[in-house]
Design goal:
alpha+beta; Arc Repressor Mutant, subunit A; two-stranded antiparallel ribbon; Chorismate lyase; 253 residues
Length: 253
């Protein structure tokens, strides 16, 4: 839709979202008030109020009575019992996902990678290193290795347009997954990619996924501890009282 055809309240929203996404407005920064928007964008008070109200409802900003309107602090959330596409998680919060590929290369599996993927030392794997952003703020470094024979076209993908998770699931449904969560101090490179303070711990999810009865991917997913949390929920299936058995729901793909 051309800009001139958009409702005025949407134009106001788009301008503020663009300033947040570009980093011009950062978390906790004050955004223009209704009065300031009325003057700067030549809109009615009703239009300015609707734009700010919808931005609040969508999680972009927080309105503090008596103080003003501020860019929301992003605290990303992921599910510890499920394997989800990070782009879908971010979209479900009403936020914008973007990613940047730092490395997409062909390697020979050694050490931990070979053991995790159950392949011989020197076997061909693909290495993907990406930074995922939510509303312009880096929330995850994805350091993933993929068995080359499982996804031979992997290096031809544009991972700024499709996430590795979405691409790999499209190739073949993932039958099994394993996740281990660790807290650790990141190295300088990870700290820089995630814009973390010195001494800030990270949450690292080690994730392996299986297809066709074999491990096909191994990923280290690094998250800033101050902006990320993991949640878990399960529901017990009904079972005869005398059996005393509780089964967890299967992992989603």
């Amino acid at each position: 839709m051309a800009e001139a055809l958009k409702p005025r309240y949407q134009q106001v929203k788009d301008l503020i979202i663009e300033r947040i996404s570009s980093g011009e407005l950062k978390p906790a920064d004050r955004v223009p008030s209704e009065n300031e928007l009325v003057v700067s964008m030549s809109v009615s008070r009703m239009t300015a109020n609707r734009a700010l109200r919808e931005l609040t409802d969508e999680g972009w900003v927080e309105r503090v009575a008596g103080s003003g309107t501020f860019v929301s602090e992003i605290r990303a959330q992921s599910h510890v019992l499920e394997v989800r596409n990070i782009a879908d998680e971010i979209a479900a919060r009403g936020h914008l996902h973007t990613s940047r590929a730092l490395r997409v290369s062909r390697q020979h599996a050694r050490g931990e990678i070979a053991r995790a993927l159950h392949v011989e030392q020197g076997s061909e794997v693909f290495h993907l290193l990406l930074v995922h952003h939510e509303n312009g703020l880096p929330i995850q470094v994805e350091d993933r290795h993929v068995v080359a024979s499982f996804a031979p076209d992997c290096l031809d993908q544009d991972f700024s347009a499709v996430t590795p998770s979405a691409y790999l699931t499209a190739i073949a449904p993932l039958a099994e997954a394993e996740q281990v969560v660790r807290a650790q101090l990141p190295n300088a490179a990870i700290r820089g990619h995630l814009d973390m303070e010195d001494g800030e711990p990270s949450l690292v999810v080690l994730r392996r996924t299986w297809s066709g009865g074999r491990p096909v991917t191994f990923a280290r997913l690094h998250h800033p501890g101050s902006r990320y949390e993991l949640t878990g929920k399960y529901q017990a299936r009904e079972a005869p009282a005398e059996a005393g058995v509780i089964e967890l729901e299967n992992l989603t793909q």
